[in-house]
Specification:
It is built from eleven helices and eight strands. The protein is α/β, with parallel strands linked by helices and about 220 residues long. The chain has one domain (about 1-195): Aldolase class I (TIM Barrel), CATH 3.20.20. The chain has an eight-stranded parallel barrel with strand order 1-2-3-4-5-6-7-8, surrounded by six helices. Bound molecules: erythose-4-phosphate (E4P).
């Protein structure tokens, strides 16, 4: 399973790249606006991200009509070869998806909350479908059940659309996504670094080193 970072913060993305952890990046208008602040240029931030990470970088349109989404999507795609245009799961968004795919531009269909939406995205030739598991869990629904249903439906008909688990809240979402065979999980920086953590690893390392340090100094080198 590929791991993407769900962030537009250049510092966080650099840290994840240095840790050798990520295969791609997803951004959204909220994340980009936060990263740009009052003075930054979102387009420049996207350009910098595409330089830092060779994998797929999702950049979302902010238009709501097919026509405008196409214009924005084509502009975003010009930033770099690894840009994936993100469109919302609306009738206009799926129409834009079909046209962009016909132009060989990769598309991530976002804000997916039901299996029928995912079926329509696959029939529109989406490169990725993004089910938002955390936001479903937040309303006492079951995000991972949706992922399971989408994977089953896509397998039944051999759709090429990749399942990109989004709105991840904790490491167990990653475990469940991997057990279900999702193609990608996009992970917020905090959760990405939590994937390393286990108290028994820290405790074990501490006691190994303490025991080793009981040896006389001149025999500790390896
Ligand atoms: C995915 O592409 C979205 O950017 C993201 O996962 C949304 O997550 P949130 O529900 O934590 O905002």
């Amino acid at each position: 399973m590929k791991l993407f970072i769900d962030s537009a913060d250049l510092g966080e993305i650099r840290r994840a790249v240095d840790a050798g952890l990520i295969d791609g990046v997803t951004t959204n208008p909220t994340l980009l606006a936060r990263s740009a602040g009052a003075e930054g240029d979102p387009r420049e931030i996207l350009r910098e991200i595409t330089r830092l990470v060779p994998g797929d970088i999702s950049a979302e349109v902010v238009a709501t009509s097919t026509e405008e989404m196409l214009r924005e999507g084509r502009e975003l795609a010009k930033i770099a070869d690894n840009i994936v245009v993100k469109v919302p799961l609306t009738p206009d968004g799926l129409a834009a998806c079909r046209k962009l795919r016909a132009e060989e531009i990769k598309v991530n269909v976002t804000l997916c909350f039901s299996p029928t939406q995912a079926l329509l995205a696959a029939k529109s030739a989406a490169t990725y479908i993004s089910p938002f598991v955390g936001r479903l869990d937040d309303i006492s629904s079951n995000g991972m059940l949706l992922v399971e249903q989408i994977i089953q439906i896509y397998q039944n008909y051999a759709f090429a659309t990749q399942v990109l688990v989004a709105s991840v809240r904790h490491p167990d979402h990653i475990v469940q996504a991997a057990l279900l065979g999702a193609d990608v999980a996009t992970v917020p920086p905090k959760v990405l670094f939590q994937l390393f953590d286990h108290p028994l690893t820290d405790k074990g390392l501490e006691s190994f080193l303490a025991d080793w340090n009981k040896l006389p100094k001149d025999r500790r080198g390896i």
